[in-house]
Amino acid sequence: MQLRAHACLVACLLISAVVGAVAVTSETPVAKTRSLAFPFNVNFKPQDTWAPEAVFGVFIFLFLINIWRGRQSNERRAIFWATQLISAESQLPDNFALIGPGNSGEGEVLVRESMNIYCVHVSGRRYCKSGRLTFFFRKRQDLLAWAVSGITRSPDVLDIQIDLSPGSIPPLVLLIARAGHAKTLAKEQADVKTFTKLLEVKKDRLAAWPSTDLAVYAEQASAFYELMTPYLLSHSFGQGAWEELGTCFRHLHITSEGQGDDTKQFINLSLDLPEERQSRKVLEWLRAVIILIDSLGTFKFTPEQAKRAAENRAKKEVLALKAAEQKRQEELMARREKKAEQEQEKLRRMTPQQREKELERRERIRQRRGMKSMMRKG
Questions:
Q1: Which of 92, 113, 208, 233 could form a disulfide with 117 if both were Cys (CB 3.0 to 4.6 A apart)?
Q2: What DSSP designation does 247 have?
Q3: Looking at residue 233, what DSSP letter applies?
Q4: pLDDT single digits (tens) 220-232
Q5: CA-CA distance, 332 to 297, in Å (whole number)?
Q6: Kind of pairing, strands 117-123 and 98-99?
Q7: Under DSSP, is residue 262 helix (H, G, I), strand (E, B) or coil?
């Protein structure tokens, strides 16, 4: 279907080029120019060809058609996936009391934020404050972006974020991502960059872990191993389950140190949307998120783990204070340098007599300040 749509676009562009070429080579006689009855003499140049106008008109036509087609295509996909999320096979209706914005009596589930972004809001579950399932579809309504995406084969993405209730999880940060995607996330996410380090998963602890595909950034290795329960491994990350479900996995981010104002504790799962006939993969990953919600809600640190977490956060506060002090000193030095430059510029604009008086005045001020500082020390 995608290749057929791109073929139609290329064919339309070729037709527009042919129309322009025919217009250029046409030998339609052109009327001679003649002066019009203006108060002053005006001669209009005859129109030799309409090729630029024809090409531009075809482009505008294709542009408008693509906006309509792309919007309809993304809307159809959004409705399909929203229907799957609230179907009997999904875990969403059984685990959340409210699905949808909840501000209308018509029972809407899907909210459109733009032509390519749709979301489903959920709330009403133990350990959860709220949830948001966001579909980021390709910009099919954008002619240029759509043509480029057909070459790069960029996928549609589903982002599942569950904001957890305050205090429902212990202080921890964990990132599981595909090896090529993990380094970028580790640099972009402030909590991952500050608290975690790359963890080499031991085969004697998790024999079925797909180490070649996944990279793990964990604050504490012991917390990671405890969260990867046998049930979760057999469902999602074990060797057999991973071969079936891993094709659409992007990353899993669990943190108690988020940067948001409303919530700092959340679970974020990002997936590449598979083909519609493989929608069960998305529903199984949704089930994995629900398993993690309950696991985190009942997860308790040992005294040793709690001590390490407290030490890590104390170090972060010290580093934050040092960074703030360094920034303050840099700003102070910048202001001093700017003021010195302004004073030098002021001196350059003065006459020699004015410059001499100004220097004498500054010297008296400097001496007076030096005497005051000596008196304070004494």
A1: 113
A2: G
A3: I
A4: 999 999 999 989 9
A5: 47
A6: antiparallel
A7: coil
Residues 6+ apart with CB under 8 A from 85: 92, 99, 109, 120, 133, 283, 286
Q: Which residues are within 8 A (CB) of 290 and not within 5 positions of it... i.e. 6 or more apart?
A: 91, 95
Q: How far apart are CA 233 and CA 255, in angstroms?
A: 20
Residue 195 carries which side chain, given as an amino acid letter? F
Low-confidence ranges of the chain (pLDDT < 50): 1-4, 7, 10, 13, 17-36, 38
pLDDT given for residue 27 in this prediction? 40
pTM summary value: 0.74
Report the chain's terminal Cα–Cα distance, integer Å: 88
Residue 137 CA to residue 117 CA, distance in Å, equals 6
Six token digits for residue 54: 């024809």
Quickly count: other Cβ atoms within 10 Å of residue 274's Cβ: 17
Q: Which is nearest to 358 in space by CA: 349, 373, 370? A: 349
What does the alpha-carbon distance between residue 157 and residue 282 come to, in Å, rounded to a whole number? 11
Question: How far is the C-alpha of 312 from the C-alpha of 342, rounded, in Å?
Answer: 45
Q: Is 1 helix (H, G, I), strand (E, B) or coil?
A: coil
- Could you tell me the maximum CA-CA distance found in the chain, to the nearest angstrom? 104
Could you identify the residue written with the tokens 């696991």? 295
Inter-residue contact 323 to 194 (CB < 8 Å): no
Report CA dihedral (298, 302, 306, 309) to the nearest 10 degrees: -80
What's the rounded Cα separation, in Å, for the pair 119 and 122? 10
Rg over alpha carbons for the chain, rounded to the nearest Å, is 33
Q: Are 127 and 297 in contact (CB under 8 A)?
A: yes
18/331 Cα distance (integer angstroms): 62
Q: How far is CA 108 from the centre of its chain?
A: 26
State how far Cα 70 lies from the chain centre: 22
CA angle centred on 281, ends 280 and 286, rounded to 5°: 95
Nearest Cα residue to 125 out of 252, 286, 271: 286
